[in-house]
Task: inverse folding
């Protein structure tokens, strides 16, 4: 990499400046561990209450709630796997730094973003917009399972949705200064 590219990287906010809430990496790691534990326990309790009727939810709504939780927990597992990989081995095999504190917001938001990506993808499929057939798509267990997969692989799902959108949406032709047309 050229020195110019390295200089560009140093222009943004990085490290502790980006995440000023923690004085040390250890403090941030402990917070993120308990954050993941609380999210898992809260999701498990809510799902238990819904499943066993302590929280009354109509079956049609239960399918959607389980789809949301499936995506959320898929993203949670992805996030927890990344957390474990970095902290348990003390490295991440990709960078020379032991802990990347600047990825705090990514790690905190991953389960929620995965939940939304998975849920919207499930709605697109179950409504028939995509030519994919899900057996028992109206069953809560099927909704949870497929959304768990979508949530875990939400980056891949987003790239496939982007490719689909590029085919689905018409390209806009722009005229250049020389009068030629180009697609965007």
Result:
């Amino acid at each position: 990499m050229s020195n110019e590219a390295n200089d560009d990287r140093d222009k943004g906010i990085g490290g502790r400046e980006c995440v000023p809430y923690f004085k040390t990496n250890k403090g941030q790691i402990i917070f993120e561990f308990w954050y993941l534990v609380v999210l898992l326990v809260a999701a498990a309790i809510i799902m238990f209450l819904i499943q066993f009727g302590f929280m009354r939810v109509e079956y049609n709504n239960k399918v959607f709630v389980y789809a949301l939780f499936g995506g959320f927990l898929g993203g949670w597992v992805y996030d927890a796997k990344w957390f474990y990989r970095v902290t348990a081995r003390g490295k991440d095999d990709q960078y020379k730094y032991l802990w990347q504190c600047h990825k705090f917001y990514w790690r905190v938001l991953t389960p929620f973003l995965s939940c939304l990506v998975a849920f919207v993808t499930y709605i697109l499929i179950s409504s028939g917009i995509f030519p994919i057939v899900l057996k028992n798509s109206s069953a809560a267990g099927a909704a949870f399972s497929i959304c768990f997969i979508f949530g875990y692989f939400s980056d891949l799902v987003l790239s496939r949705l982007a490719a689909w959108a590029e085919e689905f949406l018409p390209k806009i032709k722009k005229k250049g200064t020389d009068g030629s047309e180009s697609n965007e």
In short: Residues 121 and 150 are 8 Å apart (CA to CA).
